[in-house]
Model the fold of this input.
Amino acid sequence: MTPRAARRQVAALLVAVAAALSLPATASAHGIAQRADLPVPEWLFAWAAAFVLLVSFVALAILWPRPVLEQARERLLLRVPGVLGVLAGAFGVFAFAAVVYAGFAGTQTATANLAPTVIFVLFWVGIPFLTMFVGDVFAAVSPWRAVGRAAGWLATRVGRAQLPEPLAYPARVGRWPAALGILLFAWVELVYVNRDQPSVLATMAVAYAVVMLVGQSLYGVEAWTRNADAFGVAFGLFARLAPLHWRERHLYLRPVLVGAPRMPTGPGAVAVVCVMIGTTTFDGFSQGAVWLDPNGLAARLTSVFHGLGLGPEAAPQGAYTVGLVVVVLIVAGLYRLGIAGMRTVGRDHTTNDLARRFAHSLIPIALAYVVAHYFSLLAYQGQAIAYLASDPLGNGSNLLGTASATIDYGIVGGTGIWYVQVAALVAGHVAGLTLAHDRALSIWRDPRIATRSQYWMLLVMVTFTCLGLWLLSAASR
Amino acid sequence: MTPPLAHIGHWYHALLYLAPIIIIGGALWWSGRRER
Done:
């Protein structure tokens, strides 16, 4: 890349971010509301976060001259009894069956039925929170993986049948099915009008499980889970940041982050992390004034779809679908710009190659966005499991004696949530910078060149941090 | 339709989130130029 082209790309990056941040649709009745007891304005947190990233970048350049994470070793903690895996799988199948049954047989009032809270709160948000501390929980409790493994075991041990070898998973397809699956789940969560209807969710859960079982039977349980199970892939990426690693009936201890550099870098690897970040970004963006104002982007896009002949239900879904896809593409574009900038230090690597090799540096950012955007949801709505477990169908039963439990909104206040969000975003982006710096050192060897290659990534990280804080700030108004 | 500038009091704070990106971007560009 020539210096001129590099300058053009910086300009494009700044223009894109400026456009996103300064759209005039924010000129609504929304004032500059602050959380009452914050010591400084919210925007100052973005400045402080950017400063922390800058200091971290300088510290990495000075104190981290050799790649460390790539060679870090794991330490065996203990052997895990095989029965634990069986029990975890059985629990996953039981939980899945309970959610599906509640969805079909229970009340269709979303807040009184077990299914929506388990799927959108405990599963989609709770598992990432748990995973970052204890490793890949979902691999153990995944109901379709458990059924697939049990079926294989039964066929060979009990039926004494010789199962045919599974087909080779197509390497060209890679993790693209997982990226598509995450995008579809996000579409259901953020766009689909019937997303809260328990019977619809139960139908979708069964359909997803069937697709997973068919895929596993064709390509083998592990190959399919590693590449095409959207949730297995997404939660598996978060698990790479955790200090605990469960592998083949052994539990290993390792420094945090060291699992990330070993992320497979085949086709679809970049798409998965960009979709994860982009969909969460759109979730925040779609709650802000730029999107929601009477004259905002949602209203304008909806009127376009009305003009194309779509009805009152389909037109807003069309608008939200466009918004979701565009935000994912913007996130992918920002990452691509950061990668393209790396080539200013030498043209010995293609942009595609670098994009794949640095994709793991986005994992902590994806996790940070999940924590920042959904912490309050988990803290508040997560408590609903106390009464939903006792009354999963919403028919007045009290199985565990906790049906009268309520949600305590005093458990954490608005200011506490804001501090968690800021801390998550800063920590996630510092971790992303660290992973990228370590990978740059292993690629370019010379610490000076490696550091210079990361100027652009620093700018991308600062952009993601400020964008994330702006989205959270705007969504809270 | 009111020009966006008339509402600057409502959206200028969004630009405050952009400022760190511009400052760090400018500093990195200048630093990279000097190193070359």
Notes: Residues 114 and 392 of chain A are 5 Å apart (CA to CA). The first helix of chain A runs from residue 3 to 21. The two ends of chain A are 42 Å apart (CA to CA).
